[in-house]
Design brief:
Oligomer: single chain
Strand order of the largest sheet: 2-9-12-11-10-13
Shape: elongated
Structural class: alpha+beta
Order of helices and strands: HEEEEEHHEEEEHHEEEEEEEEEE
Length: about 375
């Protein structure tokens, strides 16, 4: 007994010490959970967009042509210039056409003189008929000569107008303001434009640009169903447009045309929007992305875009359950909202808490201390 009791007491003391030590370690493990920033899923009324590739086309594009024969004498602009409406662009040798105008003017004057004589003679023979000095036949002949002279005046006037029009073709002016391409023939080249017009350059009215893009027939139907005849003019007048590289200025477009039929071969509807180009940065042929509004989601689920991860299975976020444990949660996402929030279309419900930072430090099933942030 003397030997047994001390041994028993010693064992009890050691057991108590071990029990005390184990309890301390368990408490420390709980207190050591990592502080992790989390936020609640937000909801908001969001206009939904769908991105479409498109290209820019100048509002008006016209080929500047020569319509007369002759040598190209001058080019009165530099390639790529912005030219004003009515500005002289080219001059074609016009000597023969000026001569033609002079000849036509002379023929008109001769016809007018002949008419004055014929009209005076007709009046004279009418008076002579009253005195039986001439016959009725002579009167009719005088009237016929007068009418013929009148017709000659019309022909001569028409010939003069035609000659002046042709002369006008020798001075080629800009039909509207815009940027002009380089000239195709150089000054000094002979132009055979009377038979078939010869292209000299191309003029672009790019004060406004068209965005040409195509939408699927089923997407068009969704738009019509969602719209129900109450499409917002404000939304369709301010459609976001982006480019492959950022430009110094931002741009929005106004929808102004949908084709009357869907292409049977592609199942797509040709659509057009207009962009103002006040800074002259946009050029015909540029590729763009137009974000067309097609519906409104009254309670869209939103999370911070930076909190979304990507793996082989797709997009995911780390949510936090009621036991403060991290849960790997696959999601499906939509478009970016207000630059930093991302629409989640599947996988999350409102008020769910999710990890916003330190995503590389957490793992599925890990216990954390959530720190709620906005």
């Amino acid at each position: 007994m003397k030997t047994f009791l001390p041994y028993t007491i010693a064992c009890a003391i050691v057991g108590a010490t071990i029990a005390t030590g184990c309890g301390h370690k368990s408490a420390k493990a709980s207190d050591g959970a990592m502080d992790i920033d989390v936020a609640k899923v937000e909801t908001d009324s969001v206009v939904l967009h769908k991105a479409y590739p498109g290209y820019l086309s100048a509002k008006s594009t016209v080929d500047i042509v020569a319509r007369v024969n002759g040598y190209l004498r001058t080019q009165n602009y530099n390639a790529g210039d912005y030219v004003q409406r009515g500005q002289i662009l080219f001059r074609v040798e016009d000597t023969q056409y000026r001569d033609a105008v002079t000849q036509a003017q002379a023929r008109l004057e001769s016809a007018q003189s002949a008419y004055e004589y014929a009209a005076s003679h007709y009046e004279a023979v009418k008076k002579a008929l009253q005195a039986d000095a001439v016959s009725q036949m002579e009167v009719q002949q005088a009237e016929s000569a007068m009418l013929q002279s009148r017709a000659e005046i019309k022909n001569a006037r028409a010939a003069l107008e035609s000659a002046m029009t042709t002369l006008g073709y020798c001075t080629i002016k800009a039909p509207f303001a815009g940027h002009i391409s380089s000239a195709i023939p150089d000054p000094g080249a002979y132009l055979d434009g009377a038979g078939e017009a010869v292209k000299l350059a191309t003029l672009y009215d790019d004060s406004e640009m068209y965005v040409i893009f195509f939408i699927e027939d089923n997407q068009y139907l969704k738009m019509m169903i969602e719209d129900k005849g109450n499409r917002s003019d404000t939304l369709l007048a301010n459609i976001p447009v982006t480019f492959s590289e950022s430009l110094p200025h931002s741009y929005t477009a106004r929808l102004d045309y949908m084709a009357p039929e869907i292409d049977k071969g592609t199942g797509a509807l040709k659509t057009r929007a207009v962009i103002k180009n006040p800074y002259g940065e946009l050029r015909s042929g540029m590729y763009v992305t137009i974000n067309l509004p097609y519906a409104t989601s009254p309670r869209a689920v939103l999370v911070k875009d930076a909190s979304i991860g990507t793996d082989q299975l797709g997009k995911y976020v780390y949510t936090v359950n009621d036991s403060n444990r991290v849960v790997y949660t696959p999601i499906k996402v939509g478009e970016l909202y207000r630059d930093s929030m991302r629409i989640v279309t599947e996988g999350l419900s409102p008020d769910t808490k999710y990890v916003t930072r330190a995503m590389l430090k957490v793992r599925n099933g890990m216990e954390i201390k959530p720190v709620l942030t906005k």
